[in-house]
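tl;dr need the bound structure. longer version: we got a ligand (zinc ion) that a collaborator sent over and nobodys looked at where it sits. i said id run it. heres the input, straight from their email, havent touched it
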Amino acid sequence: MITRLFACAALASAVFAQTKSVSDAEVRRVHRSTILIDTHNDITSRTVQGLELGKPSTRTHTDIPRMKAGGMGAQFFAVYVAGSYTEGNRSAYRALEMIDTVRHDIIARYPNDFLFALTADDILKARKQGKIAALMGIEGGHAIEDSLRLLRQFYNLGIRYMTLTHSNTNNWAGSSGDPKNVGLSDLGRQVVREMNRIGMMVDVSHVSDKTFWDVLEVSAVPPFASHSSCRALANIPRNMTDEMIVALAKKGGVAQINFGCEFLSQKSADASAARRPVMQKIMAEMDTSLPMGDRRALAAKKMEEMGMKPVRATLADIVAHIEHIRKLTGSVDAIGIGSDFDGVGCVPEGLSDVSQFPNLTRALLEKGYTAEEIRKIYGGNLLRVMRAVEGGRGRS
Ligand SMILES: [Zn+2]
């Protein structure tokens, strides 16, 4: 009888773990206890064109009122430099413009909402002041124009991570957008070592598989992936294989889950692959002075009229990626959040802008994740990587 009771209780708790009901108050309490650090947001491609982040917008995924509603603790703003800026050596110039939009149009303009953060401690300080910590990461290593001197100056301006490539292979690192699977050159190894020495996080999102493995070998401190998901669940080159995730976790790094539909769901990825050539053709015919986000939105609208809609991922897909890494590595220590909001055209139902992060908290609690685990996923793990990188400064 007792055995059967226990068996029933065990069964009940197993079922409970899948479908636990969670009150609104519990979601609020746990969400508020986290420091939610999103390591990739591309709204900067619009603020640099004049968008005011303080104004509520229905055309973007990000504005200050919605960031507050979403309970954000820290935002890494993307200093994105398109590969096209390598033509005529304008990459560093573009990086400076993008840094200026973060510092001038976002941080200086809204001092009551943002604190310019340079360290893990600054992120905690922002929380104490009731502000959102604002940080910067360069997306596209060609921004340094092959100069360690420029790399150091970008650090001095506040850059705290660099994604070694974008979709283009540069002179020292291979991109996942390049089928040749190029690794790090000698200069690339020097760049990684210099990043270690000055205390800039090494970001392996966008890099080729070969570059990923080279970074893992060269970097003295844990690297991280600022906006990449699991290739086992959505087979695209931008996502990470199980082998890569396990190795990254062993090194103490973190994979920050990307919310773009094609990063989350195979169906979305397949639909997106079919749409891509049509989309590219439409966008190629557009006025190139329009911001990339606007061009993408216009093209998406045109394609919808043609009956080619994207297949949307869901909140459950995000949870599936988190669950996949937890099972693969045996803990939540290598999981984080790198939404890619305003950098991707399609976002999941249930988590379609920065205000909807509490929906993820609810979904994770319902799945049986503890408050402690959610705090690690949302920011604790990334703070651990930041501190390791800060601690490694000057050593290599
Ligand atoms: Zn990206």
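gonna send this back to them w/ a short note. The longest helix spans residues 371-391.
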